[in-house]
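Subgroup meeting minutes
Present: P.N., E.W., G.H.
Scribe: E.W.

1. P.N. recapped why we're keeping a running log of single-chain structure predictions: easier to compare across weeks, and new members can see raw inputs and outputs side by side.
2. G.H. added today's entry (186 aa).
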Amino acid sequence: MDVPPPLAACSLAELTALAQGAGLPPVERWHPTEVLDSRMVIRADGAWWHEGAPITRPAMVKAFSTLLMRDEAGQHWLVTPQDRQTIEVEDAAFIAVDVVERDGALAFRLNTEDTVIADAAHPLVARGTQDHPALYLSVRHGCEARLNRSTWGQIVDMAVDKCGMDGELWVESMGIRFPITPQNPA
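Output recorded in log:
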C-alpha cells in the first residue's frame, strides 16, 4: 500500500490529484439483489471489527472502505457486483485525521489515507450541540467522516481567524462557507 505524502507538503494541485480517488470501484452502478450481513462493525473510533475481532491490516480496511455506501435510510453497505452486505457503523464510516488549507481549499486526510477536499459535493456539516459539537465531512456514496479531536481543533483555529462581529465560527473551502458550530433549534 502506497503511503500518501503529508498534506502539509502538498500544493493544491497535488491535493486535488489525491482527492480524485483513482481506482475506486463503481459501486453506484452495481445493483445486486443478494443481501447478506457482513458481520462487520466500524466503531466510533474508526476501528473496523469482524465477528468481534479487530481488522488489523490497514490494506484490508482500505480495500473494504472503497466498497462502502450509505442508503437514504441511513444503512451502510459493502457493495460488490454479486451482493450487498450490511455493515454496522456506530458513528461515521471514516475519521478525518488531518486538514490543511491551500489556496482557498480545505483538504482532509482520512484514516483510510484518502484525501477529500471540502466543496459543494463534499460539505462540512456541524452536528451535536453547542456544548458538544461534532463536524462531519461528506466523503462518497452517502458516507461521512467525523473529524477527530485534533482535526476539529485545527478547524476551530482556522475559524477563529475569520470570526466576525457576530461571533459565528465558520471556515471556507472552494468558495463555500461552512459553519462549524451546530445551529440549535429555538
